[in-house]
Structure formats: C-alpha cells, structure tokens
Specification:
With 244 residues, the chain is of the alpha+beta class. The protein contains seven helices and seven strands, in the order E-E-E-E-E-H-H-H-H-E-E-H-H-H. The longest helix has 21 residues. The protein is elongated and about 65 Å long. The N and C termini lie far apart (50 Å). It binds zinc ion. The site of zinc ion (ZN) has 7 residues, from loops.
Length: 244
Amino acid sequence: MLTEVQGIIISETNYGETSKIINIITKDGIIGAIAKGSKGLKSPLRSYTQKFTFGNFWVYKKENKLSIIKSVDVINELSNIKKDIVLISYLSYISDLTHQIMKQTGETELYNIYIDSILKINEGLNPIVICNIFELKALDYLGVGINLHSCSKCDICTDIITIDPDIGGYLCKKCYTNEIIYDEKTIKMLRMYYLVEISTISDLKISKEVINNINKFINTYYDRYTGLYLKSKKFLEEITNQTD
Ligand SMILES: [Zn+2]
C-alpha cells in the first residue's frame, strides 16, 4: 500500500549498482527503505534520498521487509544547517540521539521535539541552547529524567540551594555538602528549558555564563545516567572546542 510519511533521512548505504537503502526517522518510528535506481544521474530520487533530507516520503510499506520509496516531497531544505559544519554536527548528534531512543524504547513521541529542535537551529537560534533543551526533554523518554521538583536527596521541596548532576537534580540546604553552588538564574533557566515548548521559542536572551553552566550540567548528567556513548556527541564536543 502506498502511504505518505513525514521524516528525516539519517543514513544512506549503497545497494547494488544503482540503488540505495535509506533509514528515515518518522512519526511512526525508524523506517528502512530501498530507493530503487536513486544513484542514477537522471533519477528523480537522486537528490531527495541523501542524508538529512526532510520531507514527506511516499512509500510502499512492507511488513517485516524494507519498504520501497516511490517519491519524496521536500518540506525544508535545512540549508542554513547544511552550509555550516558545526550546525551539521548538532544535527547529526540530535538525530543520533533520537534514533537511539526510538530504537531502545520504541518511543515515537519524541519525533515532534526532534523536528522542532532541528527547525529552530536552522532558523538561527543558539544551537547549544536548543540542543540542551532537546537533551533535557529526551531524558524523560530514557527513563532518567532530572528531578526539578524537590530535593533529590530528601525529597523536601523548600530551600533548594543548587543543582547537582551527580545527585540527579535539585539539592536543598540541609542535604548540601560541598557541591558547586549554581546561581539562581541557572537553576531557574534549567527548569525553563524543561518546560518550554520548542516550537514557540522566537528569541533567546540568556547570558553566556548561564548557557555554559547548563551545558556542563547536562553533559555531566548524560555521562552519569544515560549509559549512552555516541560518536556524534564526541565529534560535536571536539568541533565546538575548536571553534570556541
Ligand atoms: Zn534535601
């Protein structure tokens, strides 16, 4: 049956002389599909079956087999991302993370957050902030969400003094020992990141210090709690260190 599904191509591999197999992150999960003849110079599929094509895919879906791509309507060229190696690295990492979570959990709800994040980065919003917002929201799907409601040690809501990635979130005055004290702005902003709907963000007025604090917090938290090791993350860290 021919069906239309929205998604982004996350990988392409050669298949035979003239065809490719592509993997697409879609609203319905990851789809593997053959793009027949797509390596041919005159194939209408040629330019629309490349990595990070975002579009509506017309596919013949097959149970337990590779689907077949019929045609593709591009939704957004993502041209601002594609001309910047740093932004491409963010796109790679966020796509990789989405792929891993969908694969591990079968969760597809993350799709909308994924697309919203990519579009905001393409619109020119700070990729560190958008990526961190995405990562923070993604933690819930991994089952290791940050505690931003009460003290992570004693569960008492009042007198929150800082946040700590090793403890798992908020920390109160009573439980404090020698953790780094983050300023109130950082603590508030972390909660804003978690609550904000990505599609509604139009501009970001956040100080560099707060952005860096939160980025560091989330990186440590990911290392500590997710068990994920993604090459695309490593590459992103290397490339952003170089351009700092
Ligand atoms: Zn406490």
